[in-house]
Design goal:
By secondary structure, the chain is α/β, with parallel strands linked by helices. The chain has two domains: about 110 residues, Response regulator (Rossmann fold, 3-Layer(aba) Sandwich), CATH 3.40.50.2300; about 100 residues, Orthogonal Bundle (Arc Repressor Mutant, subunit A). About 30% of the residues lie in helices and about 25% in strands. Helix 3 links the parallel strand 3 and strand 4. Helix 2 runs parallel beside helix 3 and helix 5 packs across helix 6. The longest helix has 14 residues. It is elongated.
């Protein structure tokens, strides 16, 4: 699955310039009209990249980018500026000044996206980067151990399916022994701490009594 981009475009248009080209390459694009709207949906959307078309809003984009970077928890920001209102280079990860081609935009986007989808698993708001060994969920990003990566990957490959404890031991620990399930329970606890807002009242990894666990997204 390709990366998700939050696009802020001030013009009243259903398809801002460059968006069709990005969508044709498989990127998922969510378009909002203001920085305030972007801040509202940012936690639930959890994009991989934010693009601010400041040129379409007749502003330098400095204030919008500053507000976004305060709450985006490291999500990269690309700013599109106009020659009439040039932007400071340090207000975004990348600043592009019009005019430029769609190919140049894609080339500047790629380094900002880890793995470009090749080593990324996306399930709901959960983003698992297998290459960097990190998971991001609802604005939080954590490093995982190899065992936790394998455990989360197993859940993400079967969302909504109740996975038996025996199956999880077989896939993650490569063993048929399930005499002591405390090891699994401890790893589930660690995984919840990494992705859940409230690990004691989990939203994603649910306990299915008498069976095992299920990932709900």
């Amino acid at each position: 699955m390709k990366s998700r981009i939050l696009w802020i475009e001030g013009k009243q248009t259903l398809s801002p310039p460059f968006v069709p080209s990005l969508r044709s390459k498989g990127y998922s694009i969510d378009i909002v009209k203001t920085g305030e709207e972007a801040l509202t949906i940012l936690p639930g959307l959890d994009p991989d990249l934010i693009i601010v078309n400041a040129a379409s809003m007749r502003t330098t984009g400095r204030r919008i980018c500053s507000s976004l970077r305060e709450v985006a928890n490291g999500v990269p920001v690309l700013l599109i500026s106009s020659p009439e209102r040039p932007a400071l280079r340090n207000c975004a990860d990348v600043v592009l000044t019009l005019p430029f081609t769609a190919r140049k935009l894609v080339n500047r986007i790629k380094p900002l996206l880890h793995g470009e989808g090749r080593n990324l698993l996306h399930t709901g708001p959960i983003r698992l980067d297998l290459e960097r060994k990190r998971v991001r969920c609802q604005g939080r990003e954590k490093t995982l151990t190899p065992r936790l990566i394998q455990l989360l990957k197993t859940f993400m490959e079967r969302p909504g399916e109740a996975l038996e404890r025996e199956r999880l031991f077989r896939v993650v620990w490569n063993t048929e022994y399930t005499g002591d399930t405390r090891t699994l329970d401890v790893h589930i606890s660690w995984l919840r701490q990494a992705i859940e807002e409230n690990p004691r009242n989990p939203q994603f990894i649910k306990t299915i009594r008498g069976v095992g666990y299920r990932l709900d997204t």
